[in-house]
Amino acid sequence: MDTLTEHLDVVIVGAGLSGIGAAYRVATMLPGRSFAVLEARDTVGGTWDLFRYPGVRSDSDMFTLGYPFRPWTEAKAIADGSSILSYVRATAEDERIREKIRFRTRLVGAAWSSEDARWTLELEVSDDDGATERRTMSCGFLYICSGYYNYDHGHEPAFEGIESFEGRIVRPQFWPEDLDYRDKRVVVIGSGATAVTLLPAMAKDAAHVTMLQRSPTYVTAVPSRDTFSDAARRYLPARLAHHVARAKNVVTKQAFYQLCRSRPELAKKIIRTQTERIVGDEQLVAEHFTPAYNPWDQRLCVAPSADLFKALKAGTASVVTDTIETFTPQGIRLASGQELAADVVVTATGLSMLPLGGATFSVDGAPVDLGDSWVYRGLMVSGVPNLALCVGYTNASWTLRADLSSRYVCRLIRYLDRHGYRYGAPSTDGDMRPRPLLDLTSGYVQRAISAFPKQGDRQPWTMRQNYLLDAPTALYGSVAKNMVFDRPAPRSRPVPELQEIHA
């Protein structure tokens, strides 16, 4: 082994919302441990720095999307992208985090050695001029917080005749700074969260915006401000108010999710009634906002302050449900024969999923096949030692689960220290019925199912979409269940005392 290779106790991959939160937890729960945050880009923020399209925002409230250790103090509960980015960057300025971030450093491969009890990481490091070189380093524990989206390109279906279109084609993931759509005719292809965000934002300046969807999506109107949380902040100290608002939103959202899963027909009626009341057009709701699937078979989209529906009522925007036959020089011809004139077409056709940021992994020389693996407690991979993946909730704020995962990782590392183990890996306990990691019927999930580990039919091999059940397990449950550890090693340093952790 190369003794000159830098070695750290923990390496976190990704300096977005999850990675910065993970860095805070490692710094505060594992004092004295050496760690670094590797970020492939040249700035903090991840998704919230990358996405620059009009109206980009969260579809979760900031009391649950924000960190539990850093109260959200701005007025809007559903925040715009720039506010979220500022929040993440301000958190990263913590002196315990700031100097640990290594920019323009991409993980391209990781090889685990059980003999040495460490990961050897192959890195691609870029300089100011864009030139790259390969470097290596090693770590005792590797924590992947880069999410599961491909940031280099999204899902790009092939459209007949697209090369003949004389207007401009725009992809939301790479929004051009020079795009001027004022008084232009815009067609947004898609019906997911990005399209639902773009339509009202672009309708403020465009001549008209049409959302062209192949099939309807559930869209629910939510307030931009949370009156309960405003009241809590008015009468309670900031940290306590943040926790009260967070708890209220966790409970109400989980209750609605359970209603959707247990009584889908009632949930459909509630959503449809709300939409009809806002739009005032039962036929429009029946044609364009009544999906064939049940609520939460796919993610629900939100319309803060009913902005989408208000744009439709104002006539500055419209929705068409149809399929594309071909692009034409002046727009899009649909299967029904209708033609949509367009100066700008935005392809909000979805993101692509990419496991482990595209890096390759091996354990003792054998490649890791994620698709043939099982997920343990929603964050570790069967048979792979000292590796965790940060995967948030699909039915609630990503950060709720991300923060639980980071705290669990820190508990596991402390457990290894306390018992003198160098590593631990999850081990399956018999035949299980496999289920997808993300149990959604959304296209972006279905296209990538085989590349991700499976979940099982029982704990600890299920990916529970329930913060109220996950929190006790992550914070207080056994970290040894279904885990296999190496033999105790001689202690090389004292185990630091557990410090007070502010949740």
From TrEMBL:
It comes from Arthrobacter echini. Signal peptide: none annotated. This is NAD(P)/FAD-dependent oxidoreductase. GO terms for molecular function: flavin adenine dinucleotide binding; N,N-dimethylaniline monooxygenase activity; NADP binding. The keyword Secreted does not apply. The keyword Flavoprotein applies. Its cofactor is FAD. Keywords: FAD, Flavoprotein, Monooxygenase, NADP, Oxidoreductase. Belongs to the FAD-binding monooxygenase family.
